[in-house]
Amino acid sequence: MNRVIFYLLLTLLSTTSTAKEYPILNASTLTNNVITSKGKITYLKFWATWCAYCIEEMPLLEQSYQQANDHYQVIAINIGFNQSEKGIKAYLDKHNYQFPTVFDESGKITQQFQVLGTPQHILIDENGKEIYRSALFTDELQQHLNTLQGVN
Amino acid sequence: MSLIKLLLVPITIYLSMSAQASTQEYIFINIWDEYVQPTSLPAPSAPRVMLQPDINIDDASLEQFKAAYPSYGNIKIDKQNQLMLQFSVRQTPMRILVENGKVIQREQLSTATVASKEEKTNTPLKTLAGTPFSIETVNSQYRVLFFSDSLCPFQHIPACEMKIEMNNHLAAVSDYPVLTIIKPFYVDEQSAYAYQKRFNIKHDIVFDHHNEVFSTFDVRELPYWLVQDKQGKVVYRGNQPPSLD
């Protein structure tokens, strides 16, 4: 009986500790560059211009991009809901943000990554496995990025 | 003859009902926009379903909206955005007429802008009790700063109810004065009073009208603690309650 409980607990633990895995992201950025998450540690940020929390965090996203040094790639995904490509380009130009941005016109990428809120930060490994996910730009996210950058 | 009539009546009723049932009107709105730009709803042209996209929404927020706008009493969350994706709805407010599963009409609805209640001028900071508050002298008044959000509970504020409870405990047992600072995004000062009441807060609260306290202390995560020493030096910051031994 004890053994049964042990294996049940083990199964439960192994189930809960399984990291989420996402399909490979293939897309084109606003500057028509083709990007893929295949084989690359990727930091995704889902955002919209009407999202005050997203806008507040944008300088941190740019900083994360500038400090990536090929240790990981940064992709900003504009979720496309109540957004226009023209409006996003104007916003990014105004603030001189350089990070690659994908306009999720159909909402398929947002759905693919099960994003139901903005902002949403997702860090995935080379195989698409989730390393970390949070709604806001947390200290823990910064620590993950620092580690990847070799700061820690 | 009368037998034929008797048979025709229910058939006609059935046909008419099935024709109506196959046409459905969907209105997609975004409740966060409705607070500032209410939609001018046209008369229904078929049985109407009101939908809120499953983006930045939870049941509590939807219930709050329904209470404020009873005409939207039947609105539901479009779970996982299934209908929004099926009908390719990417803008709100939008009216979609569907017949036999096919979109036959799509209409962007018009909105009216309501003047914002929030003053554009630089509102001086004060506690909810009315005491003037200055960021420059915060360390002379408070040692523990708790950054929170009156939208709690909500998805971007994980475990907020538990952490507010922990902070209340900290404020009750600690000799160090504790201050709660409320994020101003999407809410007004009234929501801070509601937060105070809802979570039974006994210590001081400041509604950060222009997000300046958050910016000054570079706080973006919520809920979040920051502890200063008497000289104003930050000795702790993090999303777990500080140890004040």
From TrEMBL, chain A:
It holds the Pfam family AhpC-TSA. InterPro entries: AhpC/TSA, Thioredoxin-like_sf, Thioredoxin_domain, Thioredoxin_ResA/DsbE_sf. One of its GO terms (molecular function) is oxidoreductase activity. It comes from the Bacteria. Residues 16-150 form the Thioredoxin domain. Residues 1-19 form the signal peptide. This is Thioredoxin domain-containing protein.
TrEMBL record, chain B:
Keywords: Signal. Residues 1-21 form the signal peptide. Gene3D superfamilies: Glutaredoxin. The keyword Signal applies. SUPFAM superfamilies: Thioredoxin-like. This is Thioredoxin domain-containing protein.
